[in-house]
Amino acid sequence: MATDTCKWNETALLVIDMQNDFVGSPMLAASAKVILPKVAEAVSLARERDIFIIWVVREHDPLGRDVELFRKHYYSNGKGFAIKGSKGAELVEGFKIEEGDYKLVKPRFSAFFNTHLDAVLRGSGIKSLVVVGGSDSELHQANCV
Predict the structure, then answer these.
(1) Is residue 42 part of a domain?
(2) How far, in Å, CA of 33 to CA of 60, rounded?
(3) pLDDT tens across 69-92, in order?
(4) Are the beta carbons of 134 and 28 closer than 8 angstroms?
(5) Residue from 132, 21, 18, 32 nearest 84 by CA
(6) Which of 52-56, 88-92, 99-103, 139-143 has the lowest mean pLDDT?
(7) Does 144 fall in a domain?
(8) What is the domain range of residue 47?
(9) Which residues form the Isochorismatase-like domain (predicted)?
(10) In a domain? residue 101
(11) What is the mean pLDDT of the chain?
(12) Is-contact 43 53, C-beta < 8 A?
């Protein structure tokens, strides 16, 4: 789709899992650092075009009471990943949630499952998404890029 036909006020950028515990962690996504420059470029472009930015993050209870059962063993003694308030749950260096952005905490693997993302998108008049990031080390893009 040509950029002059995109409706930027109906587009949102979903930035997924750009947290310290996901980017560079040998356990989760050591190669995710490769995509950081492209994610930064997408965020910068979104800011230039006044595109709504949604930061999708995971933040868990230190005791793992809100994680999947098969991950509970990671949370013995408060040592799990993406613990709310920890350095690991923070966005990686160079990324910042700014005024007008939205922070969406996802409880599981997907930003689309068991979250209020649909309500946020509908309530903001969003019809197109650009999705970047993800702990699977791939840069995902769709629509109006």
Answers:
(1) yes
(2) 23
(3) 888 888 877 688 888 999 989 999
(4) no
(5) 21
(6) 139-143
(7) no
(8) 3-133
(9) 11-134
(10) yes
(11) 82
(12) yes
User: Whole-angstrom Cα distance, residue 20 to residue 13?
Assistant: 20
Asked whether residue 145 is domain-assigned, the answer is no
Asked if pLDDT for residue 143 goes beyond 50, the answer is no
Q: What is the pLDDT of residues 105-132, one digit of tens each?
A: 987 778 888 899 999 999 999 999 999 9
- Total structural domains within the chain: 1
- Give me 117's structure tokens: 């993302």
pTM of the model: 0.82
**Tokens, residue 141:** 């893009």
Q: What type of residue sits at position 77?
A: N
How high is the pLDDT of residue 26?
A: 57
List Cβ neighbours of 80 (8 Å cut-off, separation of 6 or more).
60, 62, 64, 67, 71, 74
Least Cα distance to 91 among 116, 115, 56 occurs for: 56
List, in sequence order, every beta strand (DSSP E) within the chain. Answer: 11-16, 52-57, 102-105, 128-133
The CATH number for 11's domain is 3.40.50.850
Which sign does the torsion angle of CA 121, 124, 129, 134 carry?
Answer: negative
